[in-house]
Amino acid sequence: MNPFRGLKGWYAFEGNPDDSGPDHHAGTNVGGMTYGAGKIGRCGVFNGTDAYIRLDNTVCPVTKTLPFSIAAWVKPEPMTDYGTIAANAHYDNTFGYQFCLDKDGKVGLYWSWGDWWDGGLTTTDVAPNSVWTHVAVTFNGDYPIAGLRLYLNAVSCPFARDFYVGCGDVI
């Protein structure tokens, strides 16, 4: 069994922003991400305003029906807004997704397949501040939300539909 089968990126943040997986996609540190002690090894420390890692758009194309999974260890600090964990969007925001934590620590996935951000889901459970928490989202390609799952510490969480703006597909 190959543990890397289908893996598009594995960012361990062991001193660089590059992919530690078999494809070695180069990441670009934008906004001054630094490194600190992580849950396992080191971690990326993002400033909450403008630090992120930019990847080439070919790493993970955005479509309505392409299955994907994203997982990360997070240790949130108190926030006044949402914090992005991973995002993939077209340059003009006409399609894509954003996997994030809101200011209350709820895990969310917001998406767009139309003119602007169409909808989103957040968990009813929260990732507590200053505690390492494993967060994940999986999508099996069953659009719009039947195939979507959000996880905190490997437990599938109930979610609420609480984000609707703009135009596009109705869920």
Describe the protein's architecture and organization.
This protein is 0% helix and 40% strand. The chain has 171 residues and is an all-beta fold. The protein has a five-stranded antiparallel β-sheet with strand order 6-7-8-9-13, with no helix packed on it. A four-stranded antiparallel β-sheet has the order 5-10-11-12, with no helix packed on it. A two-stranded antiparallel ribbon has the order 1-4. It is globular. The termini are far apart. Residues 162-171 have low confidence and may be disordered.
Topology of helices and strands:
Layout: E1 28-30, E2 34-37, E3 42-45, E4 52-54, E5 68-74, E6 83-89, E7 96-101, E8 106-112, E9 119-126, E10 133-139, E11 148-152, E12 155-156, E13 159-163
Antiparallel strand pairs: 1-4, 2-3, 5-10, 6-7, 7-8, 8-9, 9-13, 10-11, 11-12
β-strand number: 13
State the end-to-end CA separation.
37 Å
Morphology:
globular
Strand proportion: 35-45%
Low-confidence stretches are 162-171
* Helical residues, percent: under 10%
Question: How would you concisely characterize the structure shown here?
Answer:
The chain has no helices and 13 strands. It has strands at 28-30, 34-37, 42-45, 52-54, 68-74, 83-89, 96-101, 106-112, 119-126, 133-139, 148-152, 155-156, 159-163. A hairpin with a 6-residue loop joins strand 6 (83-89) and strand 7 (96-101).
Give the tags.
disordered C terminus; five-stranded antiparallel sheet; 171 residues; mainly beta; globular; 13 strands; four-stranded antiparallel sheet
